[in-house]
Amino acid sequence: MTRPKSVSLREVGPRDGLQSEAPVETDAKVQLIEKLSATGLRRIEAVSFVHPKAIPQMADADEVWKRVRPVEGVRYSALAPNARGVSRALDHGFREIEVVVSASEKHNQSNLRRSVAESLAEFPPLLQQAHAANASVEVIVATSFGCPYAGDTDPAAVASIIEQLVDQGVDRVAFGDTTGMATPYRVQALLDAVKPVSKELPVLLHFHNTRGTALANILTALDYGVTEFDAAVGGLGGCPYAPGASGNVATEEVVHMLHDMGIDTGVDLDKLLEVAQFAQEMVGKELPSGVLKAGPRTRLSAL
Amino acid sequence: MTRPKSVSLREVGPRDGLQSEAPVETDAKVQLIEKLSATGLRRIEAVSFVHPKAIPQMADADEVWKRVRPVEGVRYSALAPNARGVSRALDHGFREIEVVVSASEKHNQSNLRRSVAESLAEFPPLLQQAHAANASVEVIVATSFGCPYAGDTDPAAVASIIEQLVDQGVDRVAFGDTTGMATPYRVQALLDAVKPVSKELPVLLHFHNTRGTALANILTALDYGVTEFDAAVGGLGGCPYAPGASGNVATEEVVHMLHDMGIDTGVDLDKLLEVAQFAQEMVGKELPSGVLKAGPRTRLSAL
């Protein structure tokens, strides 16, 4: 059990975070992405190209991305639910695209109005479309650790989805703890189940801190050799099922813990905390990040 | 690396929690202790017998404990800083007493106005006093993982204190993460350092969730075979060094994670959540507990 020496964090505040907050100005979104790009973060989920009626918070995605000045060395990605979204992402120059399916039938029906099998059947043409443009596709498997409607997710169901995704030739997969139902036990059970079928497929874990377990879950995944995690600056994005509850784990809490453990992320924590402060002012409410509130452990008090 | 099958939680909300909140009525404190006693928790730190000028929140400790109807099978403890406090605790029938020293000279000077060596020298007569009354004494080593004034705590300094405490014949020791500076790395370093000197001494860990790491720290300690942890219902008690920041890890977050991992605590989570709700109303502000806000992972939403 050797923990990795470095971890690749993907910042999802501008997309997954802001999607669950009250709408903010286009200019603030551009600033947020550009400020994050200067922290040492090497991956940023910037926007999603979805129908504005479905997610009004992302209605200005085209405008946001037109105005962002991308930083060399940072990988930007966009979420796209269908061929039209993939076309928009490709036209804007994105070469990393995310699509979504839920492990839970009930959640997939509620979220996407189709069955899991129907969602999976839509991926091959999207893959073809993206690959033809030299873009890669990641499939986010939502509710991988539990579903707010159906309860526990059977790791075997997730493994079955992964088998199909490997056959389809997807480039990466992410396991989403959509409503913060993961615990170290669920992480172990999932990783044990998918390991035999995921082969060389790069795996990323996406935890919400809704019930306080996010960093314990990341610690567990590190022991399995997982090196890719999502996080959102400040802990942007609440939980749509529980008003006032936390959503995405805060990027600075992840960076803070990993750095003290001697695990590199490439991120400048002080710069990141400045962006977390900006994000908090942008959404106009207190964000749940403990490191934002208390400062890092190295920040001393006067006697 | 086998994790324990059960864990012994000590609830510290009524003492360590309320000590850092605005003062509440005596009757509410009595109710809190009695409600906690009915949740399956087997250990409760009930009060401290300190000078009312030092900690006005505990000025009514005698009255509180006179009115509490203790529940058979629950171990109640009291904190006492000196011979007078130990006498009060013994007179009230307490048979578990806690005394405090900081691993950090700066913190001990600031908190107790004496050196670490002076604090340690005061323990033998207190031990004698308690043991003569068939009471046991636990030494809480504050700032074991870091000090807000001095920074990192050297695990060797903590080990040196433990060696002296073993020689003195103390009954138990607790390592306090007084301002939430612990990370999994610090937990490993501390436990590695104290293991050779702590011998058969029972060890308890006390984490604050100030920077989000409390459950990751507990997970790490479980892998070292530690089975005793402090926690405070609702996450009562903030951080005196960072207004608005979290203090004690919430008991229900610990119970919630451990139960899902198949580790028994004896606690009825639903009953505990009712007490967390009561505690929140008692202090009249939102407590930081995620499980209180979002409910346990088993609480499903309607479609």
UniProtKB/TrEMBL annotation, chains A, B:
Record flagged with keyword Metal-binding: yes
Pfam families in alphabetical order: HMGL-like
CDD domains the record matches: DRE_TIM_HMGL
GO molecular function: hydroxymethylglutaryl-CoA lyase activity; metal ion binding
Spans annotated as Disordered: 1-23
Residue ranges of the TM segments: none
Family annotation (InterPro entries): Aldolase_TIM, HMGL, PYR_CT
Keywords: Lyase, Metal-binding
One GO term of the biological process aspect: L-leucine catabolic process
Record flagged with keyword Metal-binding: yes
Domain Pyruvate carboxyltransferase stretches: 7-273
Leader peptide range in chain numbering: none
PANTHER family: HYDROXYMETHYLGLUTARYL-COA LYASE (PTHR42738:SF7)
Family listed: Belongs to the HMG-CoA lyase family.
Protein name: Hydroxymethylglutaryl-CoA lyase
